[in-house]
Amino acid sequence: MSTSKAATSFDPSLPRTYSDSWREAYGQGTDTPRLSSYQAPDGEPVVFAYDSISLGGGQNIDTVEYPFGFWSNTKLGDKTHTIRIKGHVIGEDYIKQRSVLVAAFQVPTDDDTPGFLDLPLWGRFKVVVETWNVDEEKQKNGMSEISLELKRAGYSDTKRLDTAIANLSKQNVDSAVSNLKKVSVASFAKTIEKAKDTNMLASGFGKLTKALANIVGRVQGAISVMNSMVSKINSVTSLIAQGIRAPKELAQAFVSAVYGIVSGVLEIKNAANETASYFMGSDDEDSDSDDSVMEKFIQRNEKNVVMNFLTASNYELSDEAITEQQWNTKKAVENLYRMAAFGAVAQLFVKIDPDTQSFDKQSGLWTLFEKLEESIDKENPDVYAAVEETRIACAETLLTYSYDRELKRHIRQSMPLLPLALYLGCDAEKIRSLNEVADSFLIEGDVIYV
Q1: Which residues are 135's β-sheet partners?
Q2: Do 374 and 312 contact (CB within 8 A), yes or no?
Q3: Residues spanned by the domain of 305
């Protein structure tokens, strides 16, 4: 793949907004309204009040003029998106806030290490700081006016070169999920330390381990693999039994248990494939039925686990939260489960054999996947970025697959499976899996095929 081709993965579209409703985007009606902020590379977000924004772009045009009064325009590419911000800091401690903002603006930024501009009505931009100004007037005591001119971060030469060398055309789901793991644990520990209730913490993780045990109970595989999954779940229970209430330790053990289930399911799948490859030659005429049984066995594991983790979007602890500490702890535990489930689904989603999925089924799973994403509290910018990266990586991988679209035909008179397969032009095994019929059955009525 050429370097120029690698750059086509650059997406100049606007970031996703927090909500289509401006009231919800500002977080009205919540205890923590959303504020505008700028975050320098490796820094913390610094809030300010923004007064206006100007976003500019366009096209670079090559215009050629000809005799006899006509001309032609050729698009060479998009112009760099520029963002101009006017805002202010105000209040008794505005001097401190102004100094922190200026220090953030002074941190060097480029395409590889951008800053982050977070605006309630626009979302989170990756930006490169071009110019900044702080203005004060004697008549306006207690405030400073801020002017910023930024450029949206682009696709750097370093990224293009690395992409070309690695011969990658899409983001790696495993690396995105690995980052999500770290961010979810760090975010949980930071959130819980603000207001922690140890009883709610222990009770919450106790209930989560039961939820994971129920998921493992739907998995079928080698005893050694099953024991490994159960052992990771028991490690969380053991920490609770020992009286350990350290949020980070509990979160790390729980996240490890979630991804231990994913690893176990994939290990069962790989072991089944290797066993089939060893004992069944490619010329084995009787292997088709055995392969079909094995495929259904593997699919059932993957799909059962995926569907169970997708229900995390509606998961709520049954404990009643009365105090602020209890409420904060309860919400943090629920959000940790949703983030872990989101990463687990992403990893399994891209591992499901596309030949066993239709376009309609995959669309249904993706809708539930997006619902799970929406249920995650992404107030923390790092969580927002990690979840976004995971979703994009998963989407780009799935786009490389080819899925059949489901069709439906009404069969008025009963037909055996094989003649029906020839009539519809669809593989008999596919008809059997979509409609759950056997060779000996005569089929009539509505039949799903691809």
Answers
A1: 145
A2: no
A3: 173-399
